[in-house]
Amino acid sequence: MTAENIQAQLEDALSKFKIYEESLFLCERLLNETRPFISSGLDTSKLSSEDAKDKLDMAKNYLKNLLDGREKLQSAIQGCVEATSSISRPSSPDVGFASSLPEKEMQIKIQLQDYIEQLQAFSSSLENIVSEWRGF
To answer: How far is residue 108's CA from residue 126's CA, in Å, rounded to a whole number?
Structure first.
């Protein structure tokens, strides 16, 4: 392997690690943007039909953003695994990247899943309410 090949591999790995960091920051930003909506309460019992429709649109938008963010993070994590294995020496044992998840990554993944589940349940309730009102 030539020095140019090694440099190209290192640059590729660096690029993947940067994408990973950017994905973590994106997900953290999305969670921070979604938190006030979730914290405001996901109670559907006292909503007018127009409020329910507005909340449903907002919930769907937040949900889409969180799902997209989660997908980007998963892709970036896979890129890091590939980058780690491509730059490790062949004679060294492969240190399991996935087994030593950084704490921040784990917290973000857990919170993403929690928010996604809450928004899915809330959206489902709102869709039922909106469809019932349309029937009247």
So the answer is: 26
For the chain, the maximum distance between any two Cα atoms, rounded to a whole number of angstroms, is: 73
Total number of residues shown for the chain: 136
- pLDDT score for 98: 47
Weakest-pLDDT range from 7-16, 27-36, 108-117: 7-16
What are the tens digits of pLDDT across the range 98-136?
A: 445 689 999 999 999 999 999 999 999 899 888 887 766
Contact at 8 Å (CB) between 17 and 83? yes
Rg of the chain on CA atoms, in Å: 21
What is the C-alpha separation between 127 and 9, in angstroms, rounded? 49
Q: Which of 4, 1, 22, 31 is nearest to 115 (CA)?
A: 31
49-79 burial code (b ≥16 CB/10 A, e <16): eeebbebbebbbebbebbeebbebbeebbeb
